[in-house]
Amino acid sequence: MDCKKAMDRYLALDKNEAVPIGVTLHLIACRDCRTAVRRMTEAEALLARPLGHESVAVDPAVAGALARIAAAGAAYPDVSGKNPVSLLKWFVVGSLLAAGFATVPFSFVGSWTRDVFGGAYVVPLSIVCGLAVTAYCGLFVGTNIDFFVKRFGPLSGPSSTATRG
Ligand SMILES: [Zn+2]
Q: What is the pTM of this model?
């Protein structure tokens, strides 16, 4: 692979996309391309750094105006600490919930309920399990709606594919 082809393929990659093995081998072997890639990485890190000057929100006049807007109830809610529950925790708890409902009929509670109510307990238990799982799934989707929107895009027609990014 020559230098032009290697750099073209490298520059065509998305951010954080895996570098193809052919480009990697060229970068190992070619000092010029390796230096160019390193400089691009350094330039990107430099550009991604926050600017050195103070934010306009630190300005007392701007801060006072923002405080008055917040006091009037016209400000957007603070979302900095939004959604502290990770998807892994949701998945683990949901799995425990489903496993718990699946094992109830075989547990002491299940045998006691079977002794007292006979086989009629299966229908109310199934309804309670279904309602609990439905409520849990509703909470999961509702509190992670941002994830689902970014993952699956808007639910409108084919014109929405142009706005995905
Ligand atoms: Zn090269």
A: 0.42
